[in-house]
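Task: encode each sequence below as structure tokens.

Item 1
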Amino acid sequence: MSEGRAALEAALALKPDYAEAHWNRSHWHLLHGEFRSGWAEYEWRLKCPGLNSYGRSFDVPLWDGGPLDGRTIYIHWEQGFGDTIQFVRFMPLVKARGGRVVFECQAALANLFETLPGVDLLVTPEDNYVEFDCYAALLSLPHLLGTGLDSIPPTPFLTSRRHGLSASIFRRKKPQGEGRYGSGWSGPGGRRTATTETGRSRWMHWDRCSMCRAAGSTASSSERPERRSALRGGRRQSD
């Protein structure tokens, strides 16, 4: 790890605006719990070739993290489903800056975020244009809000008013005191899927999940139909 950090510092000494080196250094800081410097460096992702598609460009200013004073801010998703679910915890802190919060999420997650705290209007990329005064990328919020290791906001409890078939397995009757755990083990498809090596590296083995092995607990997995044929090597599914 120290050799990697030294290599990054050497690269930046030669080329201070080397975006990929800054982005890689952000991971070093974050892995070491140095959140404020890590999130600041993570902003360089928006200048990295191949990653700059995470950013957007609008005819209004980027938010600087300051008071909103009644203005409307537009926060847009930028990466995968897991990233969006993890980082929506910052919405109440944005709302506390005193403005109206419009959040654009992936269409597939809209039901899950119907009751998300801190959001005044939830939209998806398919919705019509809404007016706003400033904007920010979702994964820029930790930096803009000055988040440190000691100030990570709690994860909101997410609920949906609408329940599809995939949610029915988690509503089955269970004995008193029994624990139930649900898990999703693959992504939605595209560049990283359950049928690629990258996708497989992200699968969860049940034998590594202690709560799923606890006495009196039931573990369930609910996946898209096209993922079910990819179950291999002791990975179980209940549907």
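Item 2
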Amino acid sequence: MRTDGKRSKSKTSGKGGGGEGPTLTRRLTLLVLLAGWAFVMASLLGYVPSDPPSDVVWPANEKVQNWCGPAGAHIAYILFRLLGLGAWVLVTLLGLGILSEAVGQKVRHPLLRVIGLMMLSVSVAATQHLLFPSSGSFPDLAGGLTGTVVTDELSSRFGGLGAGIFVVVLGLIGAIVSMDEWLGWALSWTWAFTRERGVPVAAAAGEAAMAVGATTARASGGLMSQLWAAWKKSRKAKKKRKVRIDDLEGEVVAPKTAVTGGRKRRKKAEEEDEEATSESLG
């Protein structure tokens, strides 16, 4: 009995230790990811086109000016050369996802979120190449290699407009896949803000329009008011007009029930006249 109790106690303590293990591992993993994300973001912020390995400016800087040194210069060069402005979207939203996980908000389907984020980044890079072909630090590579290749391939097959439509749809799908909950929150907040701020503005505009209309009516001698009153009076007169049942040949057509009732009464009167005539003859 004592042995069983010791075994059960050891199993229970083992389970408890195993429960703390994944939590500690998760925290350490998130800490490492946050540190790596901060390093990459600092590298992008401190990017200098003349730092090696960039060949945009010659001669290159002898001393790397990037905030994160040669490693940061290489990371920033690779990201900007691949995605252009899409690199900012990729790194920023990826960092927000890591922060959400760190504060306790569970990110569901992380792999699917990353795929959607990549789609959104490619869409931004292609949009940069379509709308701002001379932007960026790399000549003839607005939107990076990815944006340039995607835009050229789509434009050669579907034209500029078709390429733009495909790029926009790609961005929408990527945004929905990567951050559907954030989009839902943003749309609900926008709707609530518009409803609270937009309705009073519309009401004030309506009151102003009514005031202007009243002033115009007074200035015109009340002509519109007289016409409105006359129209309402004619409508009321038409509603109050009664249809004569016996006048079937007139211009006014009586309802079906009224016509049926008039015919029955007329037939009954004719039958009474015939009976009276037959009695007088008899």
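Check on item 2: DSSP finds seven helices and no strands in the chain. The longest helix spans residues 144-219.
End of task.
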